[in-house]
Amino acid sequence: MQFLELKNFLDSKVEQYNQPNFIANDPVCIPHLFEKKQDIEISGFFAAVLAWGQRKTIINKCRELLNRMDNAPHDFVLNHSDDDLKRLLNFKHRTFNDTDLLYFISFFKQHYKNFESLEQAFIPQQDIYRTEYLDISSTERNIEVSSEVCYTADLHFSIEQALNHFRSYFFSLEDFPHRTRKHISSPQQKSTCKRLNMFLRWMVRTDNKGVDFGIWNTLKSKDLICPCDVHVDRVGRLLGLINRKQTDWLTAVELTTHLRAFDPLDPVKYDFALFGLGVEKEF
């Protein structure tokens, strides 16, 4: 296909698949169960991390997991007791088990004690410094010294840097299970980071179609990398959007670079088209 012909074709497929009827049979239906921002983030993160295998099974396992957390994931991670954690034991999906799950809960608890949104976990901190301030009572003239950790975020970072930072930050708690590292990928490992890129698409992209949430503001749609799963990879190669022999991080970057030629402000909207074409076996 010529450039304009291919663009028009993919644009039409975006319109076809980027619709509310896409939600029900896709893991994105899991965060759509919630309205609270933090519940959307946590349930969406689990849905993305567990997204391998048949979509029906993924959705069922995510629903099971949320039921174990009383369908209130943000409240659960912040306020659970040791007895509450027992409800998570024996959860399993593929190679993800309760050891991994308990560490995820520990990470979320630590993060949400300090930050309002999970977006901060993907923002590389350029500088961490401690500020002290004086609160002087006008009546007793007592001096109370407090301190807080402040962050200066470098807003000129790539999604590659964001994902590398996230993995490092995610495993910054003491005594994390070594086995759990395989569930959080990064470009540094040469992974396509399909699941995390999908999660970022859900959280960052905003349009009037109702599939993606657009609840994050620091990361921008124009910088996202297209999730490169088996369907997207296959269709991308058939359409000449991927030339790289292997499938790794640079493959996802190559694909996204080609997609930016069609829409530089929102290249990953074409994930709908490529995935839809692949899963529906239109090719």
Automatic annotation (TrEMBL):
A family per Pfam:
DUF2400
Listed name of the protein: TIGR02757 family protein
Its source organism is Pedobacter alluvionis
The organism's superkingdom is given as Bacteria
Give the matching InterPro entries: CHP02757 (IPR014127)
